Amino acid sequence: MGKRVLSASIKHETNTFSKLLTGLDAYRARALFIGDEIAPVYRDTNTEMAAHFDAADKYGWELVSPIAASATPSGKVTREAWEYLSGELLAALNGSFDGILLALHGAMVTEVDEDGEGALLEAIRKKAGPDVPICVSLDLHANVTEQMAQHANGLFSFRTYPHIDTRDTAARAAEALQAAMTGRTAPHCIVARRPQIDGANHGRSQDGPMIDLLRRCREHGKEAGIVDVSVNGGFPWADIEWAGPSVTVTYDSKKAGMAEQAHDIAEAMMDTVWDERANVTIKHLQVSDAMDRVKAAGSGDKPIVLADFSDNPGGGSYGDNPTLLAGMIEADLQDAVFGTISDPEAVIDCQRAGVRGTVKIPLGGKIDPDFVPPLMVNGEVVAISEGGFTYEGPMSTGMRNSMGPTAILRIGGIDVIITTARLQVLDLAIFRSQGIDPENKAIVAVKSAHHFRGAFGPIAREIMLVDALGLATPSLKSLNYVNVRRPVWPLDMD
Ligand SMILES: [Zn+2]
């Protein structure tokens, strides 16, 4: 008989240094789907939820999907949002289930609990009882806690950054859940870490220490009794006790001796993560240095891509920091496009002026003017839209999203995409939906740390990473940590 499986997703990556709390409106702006709304949105997309539907087809499950919710990274999830999101999931658990399949991020902090996923898994375990297997797919930037490992039976993290294996990762979790529900295995999981909040080259899977670590994940995963091995880069912009890289090992407790073997694998891999902690394969430029290099690079057949690592909304930054834009305006860059700056008030100003109208407005810097003030700009409005687009991939391929009401403001030689929503610029569709072909521009600026490489890497002549001192600055020592365990690298050690 087909198994009855509860499938759900509640995601957030919380930058605790952000003053911008994450309420239900932030979920509505990106993804908040209930019950029957979920399947039509996610089926056949490159997402974890798509894999839940794939698995239901493959294994003949009766799938119950109460909620799928995700918000752009920002500050702590509000108590109200947390109670609603977790409440929808827990209410669905009133029935009886053979298994539970979840897609979580692993770095959620709420106003109620600094370990959002740990608290959620504990509540689910309490309600479902000790015998219902729970398998969870996680982001590669999860801050995995003991509480999460204790209450889940299996934890399965992405193995790519940019995260293009989201659907594959949830398929690993689903396969393990099926094995557990049919009694073939009795999975348990453990987590290991070191005194470090950063490391594993922040999860970059194409170079540096992650290449060997991911190879070992795959090799160990083939050993008898080992269900899965995952390495997490962690999310250092979370001032919580257990932030940082980790290795999780999910093993079959039916097989003798596996707890020790799992422990040995996790510790040996964390030895490597620790030893390689300073092995970082990227270099950040200050804005003025980046402008010098852009000018020195001259013209070419493909664009130079400037990525503002520090104000990446995907890392919980505000996404309204105009520091890089100011540098580009001052450098008088031509044939450039800037995507994006979030500023709902500026969008309204542009709408009032209308297409071909001119405006003189303060742009950006409005979420926390004490952190970074607005930039006064003069420009001509060249387009206005509702901001909808569909991801072309390779990440989130096929998913719809919206920038909210959006305006293109031409400032000198730079077309600036001003959005209502905050979002990471990781897909060409963000430009193309606005009638801009980034491939034909000389300079393309994006607010993204790394995910942009999937789509923008192939069209770039050169990529420059810029630290414009946004909230997701790579200079962790400049942030005021109080809750993280001490001593911890790199805050207290060189
Ligand atoms: Zn991630």
**Count of the domains:** 2
Stated plainly, the CATH topology of the largest domain is called: Rossmann fold
**Structural class based on helices, strands and sheet pairing:** alpha/beta
Poorly predicted segments: none
CATH C-level name of the largest domain = Alpha Beta
Q: Give the helix proportion (percent range).
A: 25-40%
The largest β sheet comes out as:
9 strands, mixed
Brief characterization of the structure:
28% of the residues lie in helices and 23% in strands.
Defining key terms:
494 residues, Rossmann fold, 2 domains, nine-stranded mixed β-sheet, seven-stranded mixed β-sheet, 14 helices, 23% strand, binds zinc ion
Helix-strand layout with pairing:
Blueprint: E1 4-11, H1 24-30, E2 31-34, H2 38-42, H3 48-59, E3 62-64, E4 67-70, H4 79-92, E5 99-104, H5 116-128, E6 134-138, H6 146-151, E7 154-157, H7 166-181, E8 187-192, H8 210-221, E9 226-232, E10 246-252, H9 258-275, E11 284-285, H10 287-297, E12 304-308, H11 323-330, E13 336-342, H12 344-353, E14 358-363, E15 375-385, E16 388-390, E17 400-402, E18 406-411, E19 414-419, H13 429-432, E20 443-446, H14 453-456, E21 462-466
Parallel strand pairs: 1-3, 1-4, 1-5, 5-6, 6-7, 11-21, 12-20, 12-21, 13-19, 13-20
Antiparallel strand pairs: 2-4, 8-10, 9-10, 14-15, 15-18, 16-17, 18-19
Zinc ion (ZN) binds at residues 139-141, 163.
Description:
The termini are far apart. Helix 3 runs parallel beside helix 7. The strands form four sheets. A nine-stranded mixed β-sheet has the order 11-21-12-20-13-19-18-15-14. Strands 1, 2, 3, 4, 5, 6 and 7 form a seven-stranded mixed β-sheet that branches. Strands 8-10-9 form a three-stranded antiparallel β-sheet, sandwiched between helices. It folds into two domains: 272 residues, Response regulator (Rossmann fold), CATH 3.40.50; 194 residues, no CATH class. The protein is built from 14 helices and 21 strands. Helices cover 28% and strands 23% of the residues. It has 494 residues and is α/β, with parallel strands linked by helices. It is globular. It binds zinc ion (ZN).
